[in-house]
Every structure is written in structure tokens, then in C-alpha cells.
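Tutorial handout. Part one gives the primary structure; part two gives the three-dimensional structure as C-alpha cells.
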Amino acid sequence: MRGISRRRFVMGTAGVAAAMAWPIRRVLGANDAINMGFIGLGGRGTDSARWFSEIAGVRVAALCDADSNRLGAVQKRFPGAKGVADLRRVIEDKSIEAVVISTCNHWHALAAIWAIQAGKDVYVEKPVSQTVWEGRKIVEAARKYGRIVQGGAQQRSDPVQPKIRELIKSEKLGKMQWIWGNRIGMRETIGKVAQAIKPPASVDYDLWLGPAQDEPMYRQNFHYDWHWVWNTGSGEMGNWGVHILDDIRNMLSDRCSLPVKMLAGGGRVAWDDAGETPNAHFVYFDTGIVPVILWLTNLPLKTGVKQEPHYRGIRSGYVIQFENGYYAGARGGGWSYDNSGKRLEQFKGDGGGKHAANFIEAVRKRDRSIQNGEIEQIHYTSAWCHVANIGFRVGGSYAKGQELGVGKGLPQWGELLGKFHENLEANGVDASKAGLKVSSVLEIDPKKEVFVGGTGVEKANALLKREYRKGFEVKDEV
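Part two.
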């Protein structure tokens, strides 16, 4: 390990009492400044530093990134902040009271746990984990050390959300029947090179890699495109699908922690690049409340056209069907309709602009109950993304039509699959030759957060955890 000994951060049984008593938390008055550290300074991390800095009583006290170029650029905007490459320097700093973690996905859980163990409150970006198991470990750490931990699902703080939940509860349109989610957003190939690329000279690669394995990278760009490799990212499902699924879980009033059954399929099609995660993905979730189905695609409406497909006008959002109408919305709001498609009522929001302020209020009041994105709920949402990805990863060879059985009695499932295939064909993809995969129906025990049935269940359960690089492990005992 470089620099600081991990004994100061990863505490075994002997260190638990000391951690619980760490004298870092002063009692904050209404006018006391909260010193914050920002770990990870890509686009999201840079925006977060600005976002929090605009809240009265918040001081950007420390900035951290393993890329010195990124660090230097953000330091120019906050010249009074300390700048370091190693996140452990921020975590050990007793003057820092809360941290925002906007690193690559593979660092989220370990960074959050280390910070919690060091007595800090934590705002961690979505998905809050790389695996279901390590997400649960963040929750355990938050409870054990009494920290305020918020997940970066900012739409939870959108004032439109309770209005939509009230529409559901009121049954003005009748009982809820099903929910269809979309993540439709065009992307480009990340390319594939013959010789593995080297990290930029400005990057401390050991620090950047952290818990992930040291695997060769054959993509063209080092930054951002880590999203599309399982070692470091969660694909589009964890990058954007997490927002859609969190909205849906919110509309179910968080009554479903994990689905009881699910099926997933898809593939990485059309591009032949170095990416591993699917750019075309479909999922059926049996929530025990109403069916939830999801369609994800990064392909355009058709080859050569800068347009995207949609369902009832929704690209990245969701449709809730009731007996006598439906709601169709995306980030920031939407409309209710009758079953003929006539608009009934508009629901306006702001996309969750006060999510950071909600975290700061909870920190000041030491009250996790007032959080809109309390860590356990965002752990569950992240876990939905993980099981959707696992379904794809353990899937067998795909034969069109075999996936229909799980949605028997729900015509919209067949409609979604029809749109999935129509989109492939419009982009020149022959589904029979594209290497598509589909899982069996996988059964889940939501309380134990494990798979309990279906073909490939052992392989699926193995993917609930990951292997960590030595010195960067998430421990069983947090």
C-alpha cells in the first residue's frame, strides 16, 4: 500500500470501539460550516462540488482525484480547498466532516465504507455499489457507526414524486396494473484496439484501480468508457437504468426491496467493440405488487437516423398503467391520460435540485429519517440493476419467443419484446446471429438477497459478490 497504512481505515474487531468513539463529530449549529471532501472529479464529481458549494454553510474543503489533470482543473475553481490524489488522505483528515463519492463505480462501496468507519457522513453516487453484497455492507456500516449516508438518486428530492404517489394512492384512474420503464439513449461504439492501452501519465493507476482487477483495456478512451466493462462499471443499466428503476421503486412506495422473480436478456450488438455490457437489454421483474418491465437500448430509431425510439412518447422514463388511464413521465414530471390518450393533468417537478440540501439538512439534524435517498433504499435500487445485469450474464443462448412465458397474461411484455426486435432489425442486427442471451426465470429471496431458483442459480449467486485486489477488499465485518 502507498502512503497511509490501511490499519487506520479498515478496522478489525479491535478497532470497532475506537471507530464508534471517533471524536470527529462536533455538534453543528445552524450557522456552522460543514467541511466537505469531494472524491472523484469527473463530470459528475465536478458538478457535485459546485452543487454543494451553493448551499449556505457548506465549505469545499478537500478535492481528490487519481488524475492530476482533473484535480488541477477543479482546484482552480476552488483554490481554498486541499488537493490530494489519494482518497485515504481525505478520509483520515479529521477536519473533513462529510464526503461526496463520485468515483468510478468499482470504488463506490469501499470508499463509502472507509469514510463511514472514519466517522464521516457520506453522499455516494449511484449505483452505490458494484455488487448486491457490497451494497448491503454499506448499509451495515451506516447503521453500525451511526452515519448519515445518502445515495445519489437525486430525483427522490423532486417535489413531483409525492404527487405521483398520491395519484396512485387516490385511485383516480383506478388500480395500478403494470409499469413499463425505458432507458432509451443513443451512444456510440467505444472502439477496440489491438494493443492494450496504457493509463494517461497524469493518472495514478494503482489508486484509480483500487478494488478492481488489473485487466488489459482494449477500448480507445481511458476515462468514462470504464462504464461498459464489468470490472469497473455496471453498463447502461447501472449508469442510467438506476434512475428509471429508482423512480419505479419510489412509485411502489418502496414496498418491494428486491423482486421475487426476474428474467433478463439482450446483447451488445451492432458495434463489435471492447465493451462487455449490453447496449440492448430487456427485463421482466415480478415485484409481488404489479409487473415491472424494462427496455434499454443505446441504438437509434434506425441506422443513420439521429432519432430514438419511444413508448407512448417516453424515452428515458416510465409509464404506469391504471384501469382507466395511465401516467407517462420522465425526469422532472409528466402527464396523466385517459385510456384514449387524452391528457388529463400535468405533473411538474424540478428533477431533484434539492437533493444535496436534503443531505445537508439530515447531517445537521443527525436524522436519517428525513433523507429522501437514505442508503438502504438506494442500495435496493442499485441491487435491481445488478440482478438485471446478472440475468444477462448467466443467460443461455437466445431463441426468440422463449422469454414470453414469464409475462403470460401481460400483453405489454410481448409489445416490449416486439419493440426490442424491431429496433434491432432497424439497425441491421440479425437477432439469430447476434449472440443474444436470455436467462431462465430466476427466483430471489428478497430478505436474504440471494437467488434461490432457476437455471444457473449458482453462477448467479457467485456474481452477487466480486473478487477484490489485495489491500482494497470490502470486509465481511464492517
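Part three, for discussion. Confidence is low (pLDDT under 50) at residues 1-24. The longest strand covers residues 176-184.
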